Amino acid sequence: MTATLREKIQQAALFIKEQGIQTLEFGLILGSGLGELADEIENPIIISYGDIPHFPVSTVTGHAGQLVYGKLSGKYVLAMQGRFHYYEGYSLQEVTFPIRVMKELGVHSLIVTNAAGGINTQFTQGELMMITDQINYTGANPLMGPNDESLGVRFTDMSEPYDKAYQETAREVAAKMALDLKEGVYIGFSGPTYETPAEIKMARLLGADAVGMSTVPEVIVAKHAGLRVLGVSCITNLAAGMQASLNHEEVVETTERVKVTFKLFIKNILAAL
Ligand code: HPA
User: Is the confidence at residue 67, as pLDDT, over 90?
Assistant: First the structure.
């Protein structure tokens, strides 16, 4: 008998708990080049994805592929150092499995971060954008297929994907740091190609401010699971057609340059939530 999704979640959560994890408040997903925040977690318990039953294994460079548990800014967090992407060949159910496990372990909120291309012409490379809404442009949805009512409802309300009160807190934190925090809509493509200039023009017409290859499925599942969500993008480059060409090295270079501010911002938000 193959295990049901619910059984897989429970088995993964049990394994993680057995590593010494008790209280949990916040789940943290650290995107491309942003994983160093997990190194600041106090008295960390580190668990490799490969050791966790039913967990996929991350393949992208710049993604460590481990969970880090402990206290950060006085809050109990479980951080994903590296995430799973649709373009790696995982199903969206697999991509979002860790969110299910986080919920089972007791997190009430999720902070998602990513590297993204700037579509909004007001944005410059290296800025941080708080995600206020999202467009699912992956062509799929992680909730497709049979719905387990114990995990969430069949038709999930996406009226407020990103928590309004958390956004207000993040604005206040940014103001105190004199950080020019941008805000906008994140559009998620499947990747792994970067977009074409025509696709970016389209995305802008659709109301998108930043583009990436992650986050959207995770936030859908977080909402299904009843979690509150805060999202922050690091604008690592201008989107296709707005600069000469795109490459992953530039993305990593920008996150490297911004990481000190980024880490402080997330820590200050955590302290204030
Ligand atoms: N497009 C898609 N994903 C990205 C980009 C981009 O321009 N930059 C960083 N991740």
Answer: yes
Active-site residue, 213 included: yes
Ligand 1 pocket check for 237: Cβ under 6 Å: yes
85 is catalytic: yes
Residue (of 69, 22, 80) closest to 43 by Cα position: 69
Q: Tell me the CATH number at 124.
A: 3.40.50.1580
Domain extent for 12 = 5-272
Choice from 60, 113, 237 to test ligand 1 binding pocket (greatest atom count within 8 A of CB): 237
State the burial class of residue 79 (Cβ atoms within 10 Å of its Cβ: 0-12, 13-18, 19+): buried
Mutate to test the pocket of ligand 1, among 245, 251, 253 (most ligand atoms within 8 A of CB): 251
Q: Is the dihedral of CA 61, 62, 63, 68 positive or negative?
A: positive
What gap in Å lies between CA 207 and CA 250, rounded to an integer? 25
| Domain tally, the chain | 1
Q: 12, 64, 85, 90: which one is catalytic?
A: 85
Q: How confident is the model at residue 180 (pLDDT cuts 50, 70, 90)?
A: very high
Q: How far is the CA of 247 from the centre of ligand 1 (A)?
A: 9
pLDDT digits (tens, 9 = 90+) for 124-176: 999 999 999 999 999 999 999 999 999 999 999 999 999 999 999 999 999 99
Residue 5 reports pLDDT greater than 60: yes
